[in-house]
Structure formats: structure tokens, C-alpha cells
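User: Sequence recovery, please. Input:
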């Protein structure tokens, strides 16, 4: 089977290709950054193509034995970038349906649920995207649903709503965890505003592993939507305590946690991923303490974590 991965040089794309590189699949890495991709994957037996070359090639590589993993998307709430991402998504879905691709796995986001609900969203919950990026991700799901509708059963589509990804690969996203670790290392303190925020972080290695397992299943068995997140949320106080313990363990000294109470900083990000766990017979192997430990080691220059 051919696996076409868009956004191949992104955070998840690189980890996914790393895990698939020795598989039985024929891998095509799609990117808008050819030089970067060639540097990243020079030792891998895969084919690297530009986004436009895939869409403009009259012969094409997409056929009945192809699954597309669509991860290329603007990461910021910028109208122009998101519009371009949606335009590319529409063209890609149309080509996939025309060529009768076996499946399209659209990498969406937990942000489509919003972050102010008391209950964690399940796949059939009401959606409430609260900002441009979240709304655009919902738009990409709707585009996929429409394209699949007009495929008359020849192509299967699935939107995989991902939690926020963390963990070491060749870099660590500059999110709240990264900021806590750097603050502890630089200033020996962690400052928190609020204290009631709940986060849903998934190790990027686990996200890639779940996708590789999903690829082993026939696309016709996929649900149209899956949530992919951690087993449980992590609140901001727990996160700070874990960072404090790990940094103190490796660096010595004492890290102070300073909490500035502010009720305006409530956050409840997360979703119920039990449907995917059940269908894959799998749960994420890395818990949040593993992620913190490995991220601290990575930032401190301990690359052995990459092989774990």
C-alpha cells in the first residue's frame, strides 16, 4: 500500500515517517519545504514530493491502493494561511476521490470542541470552535465529509481529532509545558496565573503509533471521526509539580512554584478518546510524567530519549 503524508516535515509528520520508514508501505512525503525534507529524510527509503507536484501530475501516485494522511495545515490563527490550507485540502480531497484512493485520514484538532465545557467531548458531541484555527479545522472536516459523500463508497474518510502534542523528537513545541521547563531551568521558579486550568497533552510518539495501528486496519472499518488524546487530563498545578521534581532531580537546587490566583484563566481542554482505544485495542503508553521526564532530558541535551 502507498502512504501519502502531507505536512511531512511537521512535528507529527516527521515522527510518523520515522516510525513507518522500515514498514512494508511505500511512503510519499509531501511538503512545501523540499530542501528541509531532503535533509530530514536523506537516510530514509521514501519519495519526497512538493505539494503542487502531487496535485499537478497527470499520472499521479494516488490510486486504489493509496491512503492519504493529511497533516499539512497552517498552525496559526491567520486568515490568509488558513484560507490557503483549506484550499489545498479541498483540492487534495477532490483528487483522492477522483482517483478512488482507499482512504483519507484528516488530522484535525480537539479545538473543535471548545475549551469551556464541563464534560469532555465525544465524537458525537456538539462542536464549539472558539477561534479561527479551530473553525478552519472544523471546515476541513466538513470538506472531507462532502468529498466522501460524492465518492459513492469508493473512498473512506476519517477525521482524527488530536490533542495538543508534546514530547521530544527533534524539537519540543513552545507550549505551556516547554515554558514551565525553561522557566525552571532559567530562573529556578515556575509562575502560574489561575491554577484551575486543565490540559490534554498527548505524546507525539503515541500519536504516531496510534496512526500506524490504524493504518493496519482496512479503511472501510474506520469511523468517520475519532478522538485521539491521553487517558486523562493534567491540571496546571500537577504539571508544575512534575516539572519542579524533574528539574530538581537533574539540576539540583530548589524550584519555587508561584501561583497568582485569577478566575479568568479557567480552561478545560480535552476529549473522550475511548472509542478509538476500543477500536484499536490500544491506549497511549506514555503518561504525562513520562513526557515531562523525557522533555526535561531532551532540553538538557540528553538525546538518548529519542530511541525510547
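Assistant: Recovered sequence (308 residues):
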Amino acid at each position: 500500500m502507498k502512504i501519502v503524508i502531507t505536512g511531512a516535515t511537521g512535528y507529527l509528520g516527521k515522527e510518523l515517517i520515522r516510525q513507518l520508514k522500515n514498514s512494508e508501505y511505500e511512503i510519499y512525503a509531501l511538503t512545501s519545504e523540499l530542501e528541509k525534507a531532503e535533509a530530514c529524510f536523506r537516510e530514509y527509503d521514501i519519495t519526497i514530493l512538493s505539494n503542487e507536484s502531487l496535485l499537478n501530475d497527470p499520472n499521479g501516485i494516488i490510486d486504489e491502493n493509496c491512503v492519504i494522511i493529511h497533516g499539512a495545515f497552517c498552525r496559526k490563527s491567520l486568515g490568509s494561511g488558513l484560507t490557503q490550507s483549506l484550499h489545498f485540502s479541498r483540492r487534495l480531497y477532490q483528487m483522492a476521490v477522483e482517483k478512488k484512493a482507499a482512504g483519507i485520514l484528516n488530522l484535525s484538532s480537539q479545538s473543535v470542541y471548545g475549551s469551556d465545557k464541563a464534560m469532555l467531548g465525544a465524537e458525537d458531541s456538539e462542536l464549539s470552535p472558539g477561534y479561527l484555527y479551530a473553525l478552519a479545522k472544523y471546515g476541513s472536516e466538513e470538506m472531507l465529509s462532502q468529498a466522501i459523500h460524492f465518492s459513492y463508497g469508493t473512498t473512506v474518510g476519517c477525521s482524527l481529532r488530536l490533542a495538543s502534542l508534546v514530547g521530544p523528537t527533534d524539537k519540543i513545541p513552545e507550549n505551556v509545558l516547554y515554558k514551565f521547563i525553561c522557566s525552571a531551568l532559567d530562573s529556578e521558579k515556575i509562575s502560574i496565573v489561575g491554577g484551575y486550568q486543565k490540559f490534554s497533552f498527548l505524546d507525539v510518539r503515541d500519536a504516531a503509533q496510534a496512526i500506524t495501528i490504524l493504518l493496519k486496519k482496512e479503511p472501510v472499518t474506520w469511523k468517520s471521526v475519532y478522538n485521539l488524546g491521553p487517558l486523562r487530563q493534567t491540571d496546571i498545578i500537577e504539571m508544575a509539580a512534575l516539572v519542579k521534581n524533574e528539574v530538581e532531580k537533574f539540576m539540583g537546587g530548589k524550584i519555587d512554584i508561584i501561583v497568582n490566583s485569577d478566575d479568568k484563566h479557567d480552561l478545560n481542554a480535552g476529549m473522550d478518546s475511548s472509542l478509538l482505544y476500543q477500536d484499536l485495542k490500544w491506549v497511549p503508553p506514555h503518561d504525562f510524567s513520562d513526557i515531562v521526564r523525557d522533555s526535561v532530558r531532551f532540553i538538557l541535551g540528553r538525546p538518548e530519549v529519542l530511541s525510547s
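The chain has a mean pLDDT of 91.
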